[in-house]
Design brief:
The chain has about 250 residues and is of the alpha/beta class. It is about 35% helix and about 30% strand. It is globular and about 50 Å long.
C-alpha cells in the first residue's frame, strides 16, 4: 500500500526555485534515503511532505487521502479538519531534537498523544516507558533535556515521534548535530526500526548507512531528482555524472 504519494511539487522562496517538479511515492514498510549536496532541496522536500512548508504546485496524498490537490496549476490544501487528521499519519524527527527544555523526558514523549490525540494518560505513559526502554534510556524518565547527551536527546525525539503511532516517520539529517560516536548510537536505533519494517524517509549524508538500511535511495541535485533506485545501483554504480562526482568527493 502506498502511504505517501507526492506528484509534481514545486516550491520557490522569492525568486529561488528550490523544488522543480518532484514526484515520489513511499510504500508501507519501505525505507527511503534521500541523498544530495547542500542546497539540493532535500530538507525543503521533507518540510513540504510534513506540512511545515506550503508547496506552490503539485499534489500530495497520505494513505489515499488528499492532503493537497491542484487547481489551475496551484496547490490547494485540504480543510483544517482534514489536515488535523492527516497529520497523525506521519512523524518528523529534526536534526536539532526540538525537545521542550522545561519538560522531563517522559513528559516530552507523552504530551502530544494525550493532548493532541486525546488518548488515556495511563496507557500513553506505559507505551512511552516501553519506547524509552527500547531506545536504551528507560532510566532517564525524570531527566530534563539539558541533562542528556545529544545522542540521548535524539533518542527521546525518536520515541516522541513513535508515541504518536505514525504510519511513516521522516528524519531530517538525524545525525548531523552529533559527534561520530553518538552518530553510531542513532544509526543503530534507525537500523532496529528498519528491521521492524517501520516506514521511514531519511534525509542523510551517511552513505554507508543509506546503503545498508535503504530499500531505495533518491539522489537530489538543484531541486530535481537526478537518480533513484536500489542502493547498490545508485550508490555503488551510479549512472548520473553528478551523483558519481558527489559520491567520489565524499569517499576521498
Amino acid at each position: 500500500m502506498k502511504l505517501l504519494e507526492i506528484n509534481n511539487i514545486k516550491k520557490s522562496f522569492d525568486d529561488l526555485e528550490v523544488l522543480k517538479d518532484i514526484s515520489i511515492s513511499v510504500e508501507e514498510g519501505e525505507v527511503v534515503s534521500i541523498l544530495g549536496p547542500s542546497g539540493s532541496g532535500k530538507s525543503t522536500l521533507l518540510r513540504c511532505a510534513t506540512l511545515l512548508e506550503t508547496m506552490d504546485a503539485g499534489t500530495m496524498k497520505y494513505c489515499g487521502e488528499d492532503a493537497v490537490t491542484e487547481v489551475n496549476g496551484r496547490s490547494v490544501y485540504a480543510s483544517k479538519q482534514d489536515l488535523k487528521r492527516i497529520i497523525n499519519y506521519f512523524g518528523l524527527v529534526f536534526q536539532n531534537f526540538n525537545l521542550f527544555p522545561h519538560y522531563t523526558v517522559l513528559k516530552n514523549v507523552i504530551d502530544a498523544p494525550i493532548h493532541t490525540q486525546k488518548r488515556e494518560k495511563g496507557e500513553v505513559e506505559e507505551e512511552a516507558k516501553a519506547l524509552l526502554e527500547q531506545m536504551g534510556i528507560g532510566d532517564k524518565l525524570d531527566y530534563y533535556p539539558c541533562q542528556l547527551s545529544g545522542g540521548q536527546q535524539q533518542r527521546v525525539a525518536i520515541a516522541r515521534a513513535l508515541a504518536m503511532n505514525p504510519k511513516i516517520l521522516f528524519f531530517d539529517e538525524p545525525t548531523s548535530a552529533l559527534d561520530p560516536e553518538l552518530t553510531g548510537e542513532i544509526l543503530k536505533v534507525l537500523r532496529d526500526l528498519a528491521s521492524k519494517r517501520m516506514t521511514m524517509v531519511i534525509v542523510t549524508h551517511e552513505i554507508d548507512f543509506a546503503r545498508g538500511v535503504s530499500d531505495r535511495v533518491i539522489f537530489m541535485d538543484e531541486g530535481y531528482i537526478v537518480e533513484q533506485g536500489r542502493p547498490e545501483d545508485v550508490i555503488d554504480n551510479p549512472k548520473n555524472d553528478r551523483v558519481r562526482a558527489f559520491l567520489n568527493k565524499l569517499s576521498q
